[in-house]
Amino acid sequence: MIDVKMLLMIFFINFAYITLNTLRFMLTMKGYRVIAPIVSMAEIIIYILGLSLVLNRLDNPINLLVYALGYAVGISVGIRIEDKLALGYIMVTVILPTNTEEQKNLPKILRENGYGVTVTYAQGLEGERLVLEILSSRKTERTLYRLIKEIEERAFIISYEPKYISGGFWTKKVRKRQKNQQS
């Protein structure tokens, strides 16, 4: 006989464990040195509880299947939660394919929207290129890409997450300006 209550407990316990595991890993990678260990404490307690439920009931293979399903769903939900939290910053390099007046206005437009922009000129295979280095919070990442693509859909965009940021234009004033732009 299938114990539905037990299957639901196994699923939700492993779901909670893996969701916390995914978040803890991402917090660790982003340098949250206080909250990551606290999350890991809750994570390990839930893990041991869930594993003991399954190991004590190995006579029913459905328990193991439900445990694995909780694992898979927990990873998916953990990633979605992290995407919504959008912790940290990204550094975006934009290389514009031509040097039109509209493209030359892009740094001004981005600055008006609260982004710090450093402009350099480079030489590409087919001539001079405008190169923009932009620091953005991850929460405004999609907005940044949309602004760039509205001006130049052929823009070459590379982004990465910086580990360390110090000095420069990224100050409370910039963050405040971005909040005002979002409101």
From TrEMBL:
Entry keyword Nucleotide-binding: no
Ranges where the DUF5698 domain occurs: 22-79
Superkingdom, taxonomy of origin: Bacteria
Gene Ontology cellular component annotations, sorted alphabetically: plasma membrane
Domain DUF2179 span(s) in chain numbering: 115-167
Family listed: Belongs to the UPF0316 family.
HAMAP family assigned: UPF0316
Protein name: UPF0316 protein UC3_01919
